[in-house]
Amino acid sequence: MDVVIIGTGVSGLGAAIRLRQAGITDFAVLEKGPSLGGTWRDNTYPGCACDVPSALYSYSFAPNPSWTRAFAEQAEIRQYLEQTTDRYGVRPHLRFGVELLRASWDPVRAVWSLETSSGPLEARVLITATGPWHEPLMPSIPGSFAGPIFHSSRWDHAVSLAGKRVAVIGTGASAVQFIPAIQPSVASLHVFQRTPQWVLPKPDHYVPSAERWLFRRFPLAQRLLRRVEYLGMETLGLGFRHPRLMRLVEAVGRLHLRRSVPSAALRSALTPTYTLGCKRILMSNTYYPALASSNVSVHPTAVAGFDGSTVIGADGSRIEADVVILGTGFKILDLPIASRVHNAAGQSLDDVWQGSPRAYLGTAVSGFPNAFNLLGPNLGTGHTSAFMILEAQLDHVLAAVSTLLNRNWSSLDVRPEVQEAFVTSVQSALTGTVYETGGCASYYHDTNGRNSFSWPWSSARLQRDVARFSPSDYTISKPLEVVR
């Protein structure tokens, strides 16, 4: 077929919709899971919600006037994806329970040969849309724990936490959401924190029915809200590029902490020593009050091991627990899909990247023709919506795919010097950003210590540069000579 997409999350569904809008209908979307939604299908932990305003967290071509909260919760986001899938008629293209095992580029026939769990497929174009928030990062902790232990993204709803002693390992974005949700029902909650996080107040609220009616009746009103929220987030983004500005935002974080936590000792343990923005910025109105509750203990240490029902801290502390919950994040840069996509020489993306993912405009990798990676390397902004990044990429990808098919070219392969120039400019521009100067260790950096996650410029520049497809940036093989 013309195109195969891997994954039915926000990226894969967006690609499918845009293909149909461009008149390209010979495609399939492979999904190893039983249903669509990606990270919004997998993450069902208590309190799961978006940390980007709802009006921004949607496709620009499919606004949702019915969000019931300013920051939408998981179930509502998944419902939006289901409804949008049906609205744009892409459900017939979805193939559930089909896992990509290996993709290999055939240079003679100019096709991607795909081995899947349901048999072989061939495609002229491969679009990987598996995302960085997919595969949970499972820490290697010595010993064994006697009770239930699970990752937040694989929440075990069969395990009742009521009246239990619960240990939480990790204090990232997921933990900041589920800790306040479970705190009232547990007997005791032990939170193991290696590094304190900057947590800002979250301007969340219920959206009244009258406001939703206004958005349905006058779509321009919601577009204006979306624009205002975008500009607000972009103002925050200035601080990422000019770290001194973050001192103003840090003052808000410190005031939030001081108002929420009476104990000076606990405030000290929760106060970061790095510049805000160096790690992902978190927002919550309930996290600090939960940690200050009488049944919660914060342990400012890593976990060194398990011994039956005992959790052992790296500082020598020992606590008893009935359940352990891992809030340890995802394989953000160690993408599982990278080991399954192979070039003509048989090298996988993993082989080529050697621990440091690189792609032209975060989208195309030299040596892997007719392949595009959505939400790829160095496209993370830290302050705005993934939908905005995705749609810029889709403009680029759809222009490339449409040109390839319409002109009957056999392949497009980004030129190595073009990719290298882009990667070099990104790394150079990152030098003065808060990601590099903020004094922290974050998932923005790969195993080689290189920032392979962050975009160093404005999101307006991202939209402009990433969206633009220039055939001169690619080596073009034409015309298509092999008839299949």
From TrEMBL:
Coiled coil: none annotated. Pfam families: Pyr_redox_3. SUPFAM superfamilies: FAD/NAD(P)-binding domain (SSF51905). PANTHER family: FAD_NAD(P)-BINDING DOMAIN-CONTAINING PROTEIN-RELATED, L-ORNITHINE N(5)-MONOOXYGENASE-RELATED. This is NAD(P)/FAD-dependent oxidoreductase. It comes from Kribbella albertanoniae.
